[in-house]
Structures are given as structure tokens and as C-alpha cells.
Request: fold
Amino acid sequence: MNIKHLYIAFIFLYSGLSAQAPDVLFDQGNKAYNLGAFEEAITNYKLVLEAELHSSELYFNLANSYYKIGEVGESVFYFEKAKLLDPDNKDIHTNLQFAQNMSLDSIEFLPKSLLSELIGSVTSLFSVNNWSKILIGISCLLSLLFVLYLLNKSTFWKRLYFSSFWLLLIIFFTIFSLTYSQHKEITNQRSGIIFNTQINIWGEPNERSEVLFVLHEGTKVEVIDALGTWNKIKIVNGSEGWVESSSLRMLN
Reply:
């Protein structure tokens, strides 16, 4: 075997080991977690992230590890990252709630109108992807009803297919509008997690202004504006203020 063949064999061997390494690290992290060695588990999971491999399972396990050692900010951050990749996973939602309960901030949600609550209840039944699948299914039914209407000669059945078609079309456009609004809200929203133990929220982007309120580690905020090294944030009760960008870790 000449040098060229040895070089090719080395490249294939190295590629195989590199591809396997993240899986091995993930398994080692899981074993460490099951043995209660949570910091060792975190180290292994972080090495997988450094290999640019991301999954809801990885974020979920990493969040659970941080939760076990009482790191509120890190735990909430990675649960939120897991939720972004798998929004329908009930375990992620449940454990995220446990992690949020460790935060010192108990913030009440801004009251919504009955219409907003109704729309929210409907859209929260499924993720945007699942609503899209439902819309595709409705499109197929609409096509079928249209074909049956054209082919059937009975007046009764024609009326039935015609009425069903328009009723289903109204449902289709209603779901489409709600899904589009939900998708637009998700994609446009910029969120972050507070990582300081305690932080002042200022009325203006400087520390000479009034302190409006205080937030603690692990609180999720929406970023609605930015100016230099400052971000304007909004919390779920509608309160707004400015924080230094270094106090936040962005989710998206």
C-alpha cells in the first residue's frame, strides 16, 4: 500500500470517528446523568453542541442537568431552546414550568380579551406545522367536493356538495389566517433569558434614568428594540424597560 492509499484510509477513518464522536458524547452524557454526575453530563452535552449538532433531545437533557444543580438561567434557556424545536412536547413544557418556578420573579400575564383568549386556545391546540398539515388535508377535501359536484347529476347531491364546499372553504381560510398570524408572531418575536442574579430595568438606555422594576435570573423577556449596548424588553404583564445587552442571552 503506497502513501496515497494510506492517506485516503486515514481520511476515511478520521471521518468515521468524527461522525461517531457526538453520538458517543451524547451517550456518555446520558450515562453520567443517570449516575447523578450532572456536571460531567453537562460537559459532554456541551461538546456535542460545539460539534454544531442541535436537537430538542440534546437541549432537553442539558436543561434537566442544569436544573439538577440549581442553575436557573441555564435550565430555562435550554428548555426554551428545546421547545422551539419541539413545541408539542409535553415533557418539555412541564419541566420548563418547574424550572421557571425556581425563578424569584412571579409575573402575572397581561389580561386578554375573550376573543384573544378564544383565538389563543384554538391556535395552541396544534403547532404551526400541524396546522399546515390540516390545511393540506382540507385542500384535498375541497378538491374532492369540487370533482363530485361536477360529476354528479342529482340536484340534491349537487346542493349538498356545493354547500359543503363553501362551508369547508370558510373553515380553510379561517384556519389559514390564524396559522399565518401565529407563524408571523413566532418568527418576528425576539426573546431572551435574563442571566444576571438580579438586574435593574431602566426607563431609558442609561443608568442615569429611573429604575422601573427589577428582574432575576431565569426570567424570559421579549426584545422589542435595541440601541447600542442596550435592549428594550417587554415582559408578559406588559411592562417595558431597558437592560444592557450583556445581561441577556438570546433564544433566536
